[in-house]
Amino acid sequence: MIHWTTLLAVEEVAKEGGLFDIDATLPLMAIQFLLLALILNAIFYKPLGKAIDERNEFIRNNQLESKERLTKVEKLAQQYEDELAGARREAQKVIADAQAEADKIASEKVAAAQQEAQAEREKASQEIEQQKQEAYASLEKEVDGLSRQILEKLLGADLAAQR
Questions:
Q1: Separation CA 32–CA 15 (nearest Å)
Q2: Are 145 and 138 in contact (CB under 8 A)?
Q3: Euclidean distance between CA atoms 54 and 63, whole angstroms
Q4: Rounded distance, CA 3 to CA 52, Å?
Q5: Residue 23 to residue 147: CA distance in whole angstroms
Q6: Which terminal CB of the chain, N or C, has fewer other CB atoms within 10 Å?
Q7: Exposure string (b/e) for 70-89, b if CB count within 10 Å is 16 or more?
Q8: What pLDDT, in 10s, does the model give residues 82-126?
Q9: What is the pLDDT of residues 14-72, one digit of tens each?
Q10: What does the pLDDT look like over 121-145, one tens digit per residue?
Q11: How many whole angstroms separate alpha carbon 62 and alpha carbon 90?
Q12: What angle do CA 108, 112, 115 make, to 5 degrees?
């Protein structure tokens, strides 16, 4: 089953160089390996490394630009918030001033209306007093007239009785 001739050939080769035969093939293989490494480096690795470096540079630049933009946006947001707070304070001041002015105008109108009402009450009171005086005067005349008539009737009856 095992061929004796094959074993003899293998034995003969093994005796000549052993497991590692150092002859011209080893340096030739080393030169081929280095040459292949140089070719691969020139054709594949340098362009790939260059593309990776360019991509890294692109990403780094985009990150820096993004950070700068973010900083600008944050500054603008803070500035707008400050302006908005100032505008709110100013609007509140304007509202407070307008409300104070409205209160002042309202109180002036109320005071004027109260004065006018007081003047009308006084005028009405004077008119009532005048009408009262006129009524008293009119009643006094009527009372005097009635008193004379009563006296005349009483006295006339007494005068007629005395005569």
A1: 28
A2: no
A3: 14
A4: 57
A5: 176
A6: N
A7: eeeeeeeeeeeeeeeeeeee
A8: 999 999 999 999 999 999 999 999 999 999 999 999 999 999 999
A9: 555 555 556 677 788 889 999 999 998 888 888 888 999 999 999 999 999 999 999 99
A10: 999 999 999 998 888 888 888 888 8
A11: 41
A12: 140
Which pairs count as long-range contacts for 137-144, CB under 8 Å and 24+ apart, including other chains? none
CA dihedral sign of residues 19, 25, 28, 29: negative
CA end-to-end span of the chain, whole Å? 203
Q: Please give, one letter per residue, the 3-state secondary structure of the chain.
A: CCCHHHHHHHHHHHHHHCCCCCCCHHHHHHHHHHHHHHHHHHHHHHHHHHHHHHHHHHHHHHHHHHHHHHHHHHHHHHHHHHHHHHHHHHHHHHHHHHHHHHHHHHHHHHHHHHHHHHHHHHHHHHHHHHHHHHHHHHHHHHHHHHHHHHHHHHHHHHHHHHC
Whether the pTM exceeds 0.70: the reply is no
Provide the residue type at 68 as one letter. E
Residues in the chain: 163
pLDDT of residue 7: 56
